């Protein structure tokens, strides 16, 4: 096992800095190094010295090799708003070069449209979703909304009223292909009189369905019939929850053992 | 990746609110911008003032910068416009000299020294830095010296330098870095880290 020494890391970082200064570093590496530069004054000083070395080599006449311009600009910029927080230089009397000035209006409008378009789409989607929820409420009544979680597939356990149980824990590719085996795609159970008597069988059903791909059709049918039978018995003892009863779990796992 | 794209990474960071990224751009181009402005005004101090103003204008206009041109080119246009405006906005009275300045080179040099009160110290520092850099360059192995000179003086890309020196691009990158590192080390020894910091060193 080899360990990279800190000086090696610094050497690589400095090499990257040199390459970035020359525009020879990949964009991703540039971005990472720029983040480092934002908080590392020593690295920024080295960046400055790279610029200084170039200026000294070119022996630019009349150019004084100090950092006064950078220092003054930095002080002035400190008073300016940052653009990330939306404080763009509004109202600043800046004379932008012709190309930028001519494109400023187009840029502003296209920029607005760029953000407005997805927001508009999201608004439509949200409106449709809200209308669907309202429609479902009017159709089914408030108690059926108990488990109306955002799920693409549901198992319908009761015919009157229709109760939907979310099955978010089951991946899409593991959903049971009930219809494909000729089995009914709906199972009728007596209407629950309360939420507490409803929830445990639903969870058991979910458990069985989730593991049904590992069981044969007959075993699956037996397990589900067991649940339905249990639900019928539970009807007689209204309000008694089976959620905390280990026996129910044992019954639910009447199918072959889950992996 | 080109220098333009590298600068664009920094520009985008500024547009996202990272002011320090703009500081990097200023540090990188300040000497070049001052040199450009010196074509319009001969006083180094005045050129620095104009360069400073140009950078601040550039910062304020940066939200409109979309990268259609290189930041360097865009910055140059702002600097030139700022210098021209500066010249137009004031009454530039001719400066009388007692010296007979027939040689343009000498004329520029003397004029510079006469007009800038900071010049003696600033020029002394500059000369010292140049001396150290040149001395360090002379002490470099030939391949490092060639690589850094081709890069800084001739402005060649790493790929072009690799072709000229018949070596891989990675080797060019390493040679240029090692050359800079050696010069930088010498500068730090002399100035004890005073150079490169964003503070007035004179």
Overview in brief:
The complex is a heterodimer of chains A (259) and B (202). With 259 residues, chain A is mostly helical. Chain A contains eight helices and two strands.
Structure description:
The complex is a heterodimer of chains A (259) and B (202). Chain A has helices at 6-21, 27-39, 41-58, 68-78, 98-140, 195-210, 217-236, 246-252; strands spanning 154-156, 164-166. Chain A is mostly helical. In chain A, a hairpin with a 7-residue loop joins strand 1 (154-156) and strand 2 (164-166). In chain A, helix 1 (6-21) crosses helix 3 and helix 6 runs antiparallel to helix 7 (217-236). The longest helix of chain A has 43 residues, at 98-140. The model of chain A is unreliable at 86-115, 141-189, 192-199 and 236-259 (pLDDT under 50). Chain B is mostly helical and 202 residues long. In chain B, helix 2 packs across helix 3 (44-61), helix 3 (44-61) packs across helix 4 and helix 6 (119-138) crosses helix 9 (169-191). Mean pLDDT of chain B is 83; it is low at 94-99, 110-115 and 198-202. Chain B is built from nine helices and no strands.
Ordered list of secondary-structure elements with their pairings:
The complex is a heterodimer of chains A (259) and B (202).
Chain A: H1 6-21, H2 27-39, H3 41-58, H4 68-78, H5 98-140, E1 154-156, E2 164-166, H6 195-210, H7 217-236, H8 246-252
Antiparallel strand pairs in A: 1-2
Helix pairs in contact in A: 1-3, 6-7
Chain B: H1 3-15, H2 19-37, H3 44-61, H4 71-88, H5 104-115, H6 119-138, H7 142-152, H8 158-165, H9 169-191
Helix pairs in contact in B: 1-2, 2-3, 2-4, 3-4, 6-9, 7-9, 8-9
Task: List key phrases describing it.
heterodimer, A: 259 residues, mainly alpha, two-stranded antiparallel ribbon, 2 strands, B: 202 residues, 70% helix
Percent of residues in helices of chain B comes to over 70%
Query: Overall mean pLDDT score of chain A?
Result: 61
Low-confidence stretches of chain B: 94-99, 110-115, 198-202
Described by its quaternary structure, the protein is: heterodimer
Most extensive protein-chain contact, per-chain counts: A-B, 71 and 97 residues
Largest sheet of chain B: none
Number of helices of chain B: 9
Regions of chain A with pLDDT < 50 over 5+ consecutive residues?
86-115, 141-189, 192-199, 236-259
The share of residues in extended strands of chain B comes to under 5%
Question: What is the helical fraction of chain A, as a range of percent?
Answer: 55-70%
Number of strand elements of chain B: 0
3D shape of chain B: globular
Radius of gyration of chain A: 34 Å
Based on CA atoms alone, the radius of gyration of chain B comes out at 19 Å
* SSE run of chain B: HHHHHHHHH
Distance between the termini of chain B: 36 Å
The class by helix and strand makeup of chain A works out as mainly alpha
Number of helices of chain A: 8
N-to-C CA distance of chain A: 37 Å
